[in-house]
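re the bet — no i am not wrong, look at it urself. input seq straight from the record:
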Amino acid sequence: MKWIFLRKDFIGTINIDFMENQKKFMKLSDVEAYRIAFHLSNYIWDVVRSWDSFARNSIGSQFANAADSISANIAEGWGRYGKRDKVKHYRISLGETTECLDWNQKSKVRTLLKDEEYDHIFTELKKLPKAIHS
């Protein structure tokens, strides 16, 4: 479908089919890895907020920062134009995933996490490498 438009110094057409096809591009919120990481970071934030001040200020802040960095690096990589930049940020998010696995384990050993909290975080973290690579 084409529309004809008139301007004082120009007569032309706009391809409406092209404009309709632009709606099919993926958004960041469509990326599975980003969705998992975003929801996980908010879950970890809520869990850490309930800890006492020493645990929250030592392990908790680093755990929350690492979890936040996963989705932040996926988002930053998504927004980059060059492939090397994208891959760099996706690799950083994989490193942050590994760091979160470590903080999750330490939190369990130090009895800061309930078993169901640990299991939920562990399960979600294990989904991320495959989701980031796809």
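see?? Strands lie at 2-7, 10-15. told u. also The longest helix spans residues 53-79. so pay up
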